[in-house]
Amino acid sequence: xxxxxFYSIDAAPRALSNEEIMKLIKDFGEATRRAIEAGFDGVxxxxxxxxxxxxxxxxxxxxxxxxxxxxxxxxxxxxxxxxEEVKRVAAEHAKQPFIIGYRLxxxxxxxxxxxxxxxxxxxxxxxxxxxxxxHMALNDFWSKPRRGIESNLSRVELIGEYVGNKVxxxxxxSIHTPDEAVQALEKTGIPLIALGRELIIEPNWIEKVxxxxxxxxKTTVNKDDQTLLAVPDPLWELMxxxxxxxxxxxxxxxK
Length: 255
What we know:
This protein is of the alpha/beta class.
């Protein structure tokens, strides 16, 4: 059984053939074409959270010895090929500016796994690809590196300093209040903050800030809020059963 993140899969993994990999790259292009035809303003490549793009860059999951595996630079072959295909399709089909971003997980907990040092190699490739932004996938905005770089700075601060003004950075992770968002922007200097779990807990987060009602923003979830928040059953179960993922009201923590 595979246990990756929050999901367990009763299937043994196998290596993709070269033909399957080439088709997969084309599929990313096809998805981009459909997004353009559907009227979307851009796409974000999900190179984080253990999904297929990250799997190719990760020394934990990628043990190939062909053109798609090896050292960090060779493990970039698949992510770079996907980016090139998506950019090609956007240039061919988009009639107006089309945003292309990339989401990455700065490190992996496994050994071997992606380290901060290898993340900088990935970021160099993303800068060279002239993407519109890089979105960091973090559970905690202020988390510090595990290994690969010795520093007291957070991952966001390290990447923000490394990138400078070469490409916009989006930071994310346990930012619940407007004050926390302002602090994150001011302390790190990155230009953008994303809200994920916070918007599930408080769908009217933006509106309450705009209206000056910040004190009404909810920062915890109650077990009786599922219908109000319109959260499907599988996600709702994960929210309450994965320790530390969502801030739960103490009186509603499931035993």
